[in-house]
């Protein structure tokens, strides 16, 4: 188990958050879920910006006076250095770290004059959590923002150091086309644990066939065809479903669910073992049934060795993960649900870690944890009895 430590950053004065192979952040609005992810993104940015490059990974041994921007990179929009301190801060230094057992990478940051658009690593408190044990030290790192690219007729293409769909899924079409265009001897190989085993879905061995198998599983009967045009430096996705009858549709003639879920599927299938994949709101624009299947899918993907971090407001995503555990698609000990809530008289959000049992049951069900359906039913029953 990995631990993310956060001190004096936004709503947190001092907290430790467990990070498992599949980590889910849940809780009400404004209770710190996004702040935890932003802390992890800032720590990643620090490592990739300030570390020494060692052939195939980062090594962070000394601070080098480089600044870490607070806006735009990883879709962050944190304002200035004053904005990233707690409302009643007593000190002006921030501390972020990732640790496992006795080893860790812990960085102290100066907020300088409290009006800059950056913070500055001032001290490397610990530096002995290294590659390949530390997921932040890989070149590969995958992040999907909550505000992903909706349906587009086409998308631009770009150079990349390693295959990824971009922070908003904007390069999804290009990546699928590129991986399918590789020569036989260098063909991208899907991890066998990530192959959909349900009969009838997988129609071939190309990368797009694996993407289509999972896409059709999650969103009934939907498949895609990637098209890349090097002359116009664009790529696009053609979509087929049970109503298209062999005539592919433009994405703009379909709903947002496909364009929002497709980057998740692609990222999960291509993510390197041992790396981080952070996904905000995987349930966005999906029907509840598809949300449950997405949760099931994420459980299988995390079981293959990718460290998946999910922020969600969907009980259906949780249900799907529980089913994956009950069906033994992922070991229950590899899943942690961190429920963030505000407690009366508390100066910061509380993090309660919920585990899963072997049959998928939750070890705890705190007040406010996806209980609104039961509360609404109870309210309706009381109203009907009063009629």
Distance between the termini: 53 Å
Mean pLDDT over the full residue set: 92
Helix content: 10-25%
The H/E string reads: EEEHEEEEEEEEHHEEHEHEHEEH
Low-pLDDT runs of 5+ residues are none
How are the strands of the biggest sheet laid out side by side?
2-1-7-8-9-6
Give a short overview:
The protein has 387 residues and is α+β, with helices and mostly antiparallel strands. Helices cover 25% and strands 25% of the residues.
Protein architecture, described:
The protein is α+β, with helices and mostly antiparallel strands. Helix content is 25%, strand content 25%. It is built from 7 helices and 17 strands. It has helices at 33-50, 172-180, 207-218, 256-270, 288-303, 315-326, 372-385; strands at residues 2-9, 12-19, 22-27, 52-53, 58-59, 68-69, 93-100, 103-110, 118-127, 142-144, 155-156, 223-229, 234-240, 276-280, 307-311, 335-341, 350-354. The strands form 4 sheets. The chain has a 6-stranded antiparallel beta sheet, with helices on one face. The chain has a 6-stranded mixed beta sheet with strand order 10-14-15-3-16-17, with helices on both faces. A 3-stranded antiparallel beta sheet has the order 11-13-12. A hairpin with a 7-residue loop joins β8 and β9. The longest helix has 18 residues, at 33-50. The radius of gyration is 22 Å and the shape is globular. The termini are far apart.
Strand-helix topology:
Elements: E1 2-9, E2 12-19, E3 22-27, H1 33-50, E4 52-53, E5 58-59, E6 68-69, E7 93-100, E8 103-110, E9 118-127, E10 142-144, E11 155-156, H2 172-180, H3 207-218, E12 223-229, E13 234-240, H4 256-270, E14 276-280, H5 288-303, E15 307-311, H6 315-326, E16 335-341, E17 350-354, H7 372-385
Parallel strand pairs: 3-15, 3-16, 10-14, 14-15
Antiparallel strand pairs: 1-2, 1-7, 4-5, 6-9, 7-8, 8-9, 11-13, 12-13, 16-17
């Amino acid at each position: 188990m990995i631990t993310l430590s956060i001190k004096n950053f936004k709503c947190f004065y001092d907290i430790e958050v467990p990070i498992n192979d599949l980590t889910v952040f849940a809780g009400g609005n404004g209770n710190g879920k996004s702040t935890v992810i932003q802390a992890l993104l800032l720590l990643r940015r620090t490592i990739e910006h300030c570390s020494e490059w060692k052939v195939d990974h980062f090594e962070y041994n000394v601070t080098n006076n480089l600044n870490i921007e607070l806006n735009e990179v990883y879709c962050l929009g944190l304002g200035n250095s004053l904005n990233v301190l707690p409302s009643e801060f007593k000190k002006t230094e921030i501390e972020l770290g990732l640790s496992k057992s006795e080893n860790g990478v812990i960085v102290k940051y100066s907020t300088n004059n409290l009006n800059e658009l950056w913070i500055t690593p001032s001290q490397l408190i610990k530096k002995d959590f290294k590659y390949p044990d530390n997921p932040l030290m890989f070149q590969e790192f995958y992040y999907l923002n909550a505000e992903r690219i909706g349906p587009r007729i086409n998308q631009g293409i770009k150079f990349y150091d390693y295959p990824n769909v971009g922070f908003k899924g904007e390069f999804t079409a290009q990546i699928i086309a590129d991986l399918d265009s590789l020569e036989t001897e260098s063909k991208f190989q899907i991890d066998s644990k990530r192959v959909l085993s349900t009969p009838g879905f997988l129609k071939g061995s190309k990368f797009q066939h694996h993407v289509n198998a999972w896409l059709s599983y999650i969103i009934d009967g939907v498949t895609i065809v990637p098209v890349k045009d090097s002359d116009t430096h664009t790529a696009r996705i053609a979509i087929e479903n049970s109503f298209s009858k062999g005539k592919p549709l433009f994405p703009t003639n379909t709903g947002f669910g496909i364009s929002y879920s497709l980057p998740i599927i692609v990222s999960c299938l291509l993510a390197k073992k041992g790396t981080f994949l952070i996904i905000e709101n995987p349930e966005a624009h999906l029907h509840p049934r598809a949300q449950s299947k997405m949760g099931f899918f994420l459980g299988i993907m995390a079981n293959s060795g990718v460290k998946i971090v999910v922020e969600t407001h969907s009980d259906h995503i949780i249900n799907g993960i529980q089913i994956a555990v009950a069906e033994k698609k992922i070991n229950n000990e590899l899943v942690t649900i961190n429920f963030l809530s505000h407690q009366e008289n508390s100066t910061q959000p509380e993090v309660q870690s919920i585990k899963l049992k072997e049959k998928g049951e939750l070890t705890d069900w705190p007040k406010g944890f996806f209980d609104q359906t039961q509360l609404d039913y109870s309210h309706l029953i009381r109203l009907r009895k009063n009629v």
